[in-house]
User: Fold Fibronectin type III domain-containing protein from Streptomyces taklimakanensis.
Amino acid sequence: MLVAAVVALSPLALATGPAHAADEPTLTADPLSTWQTDGIVWTLAYAEGVVYAGGTFEHIRPPGAAPGTGELPRKNFAAFDAVTGEPLPCAPAFTGGVETVRAMKASPDGSVLYIGGSFGSAGGVGRSNTAALDTADCTIDDAWKPAVSSVVRAIDVTDTTVYIGGQFTTVQGETRERVAALTRDGRLLPFNVTVRGSSISNDPTPGINAITVSPEHGKVVIGGRFTSINGSLLNSVHGLVGLDATTGEIVNRFTGWIPRRSAVKSLVNDGTNFYLGAEGTGGGVFDGRVAGRLSDGAMLWKDTCLGATQAVVPYRGVLYSGSHAHDCSQTPGGFPEHQNRQHLLAQSIADETILTWFPDTNGGIGEKLGPRAMVMADGILWTGGEFTAVNDAPQQGLTRFAAAPDTGAPLVPAFSGTSDAPGKITLSWRAAWDRDDGVLTYLVRRDGVLVATLDRESRSWDRPTVTFTDTVAPGATHRYSLEVTDGTNLSSRNGPLYVTAAD
Ligand SMILES: [Ca+2]
Assistant:
């Protein structure tokens, strides 16, 4: 048998190809079977093996079901088994007000789920924009019933304290402008921080969108759109500030982190770092993500992808995010401006590199921004939002991703063959791509026998030409086929392609 020659990828292709990721393993990009909602999921929370979804919807329906079929009534709140994804009977209705649930967070021990939004009733019990659920028996908690004057958009909870943020100006009849702290049983704490101004010129209403608290550091970080804390416009805060968790005094100003016309939409922490996602309006804005250190408020990195970020979740060295990224040209591993918005991303917490994890949703309903909420639950990343499709298949409101299985096979590319020299046959094709594998392996068969195995890196936006030159008898005609695998899934086989070598 003649020995096959494999043509190396040119140095130019390597230089311009995708950046090598930092090798953190990601989840797969293939969604697990998941129930759907008939409206927008604004918030997700996890406690004790259960995922809670809150938003603006009327029903849930099974995986694969068309809108209006197989529905169960769920008024702005639903509970699911985190692993199987099956719906649970826990289903208090949230009604009154604007009738929406916008924020949820469980206590560290998982016993109580704190809920915020715009509603006047929770499970038939009168409540004022916030309620709590005892997770053991799915009853509305008797103790937690603070009167909050307007919508609650952010919640975080420690063993002793619940922080709420939003657009309210009073809590329990006392002045609390957009942020407040209460005991777990609903008693208002002295923590009194006045949040005013707006970092968004066309929306002058100040507001808190996100809160993350670190009891170990005695610090609470709040984000949203504001330009003033505690009354002074000269204190140089803009959409993000770190506060003493007890007194509310400013401990980190994060000067320059959030530019004009931009607001913080999401904040989480892992006990060491905190992570935020931002949304800008207009040109020169910040739509990307920042990783910062809780201890001293130092910035670790900031990516400047365009396409506003609505949700962030750290997990095992990777920051997962929901956005509508369309230009990540300044971020390692990123893509140039393109028309197809990428709604889900994973990046290295160590160095911000965008990793090979490209499941996608569509924009969907509402503002058509796709994902709005994420939570990690027993190793499964639950994602909720406005979308009505995931990886180009119908799926509304909710989806899930796990570490396995990888089920998506790359599409086999078309290939062609030429012979420019006696006994030399060159096959060429445009590289395929895969949603969660950057290096694909191409299998070339001549007359049914494997003659070449070629590994090539590619992304959906960067698909280099791959070539293979075979050495055969001059004048001979051979039959070739091509397959591609991501290491788990094998594509269909392309061919046969008959090529005659020059003589
Ligand atoms: Ca794959």
In short: The mean pLDDT is 93.
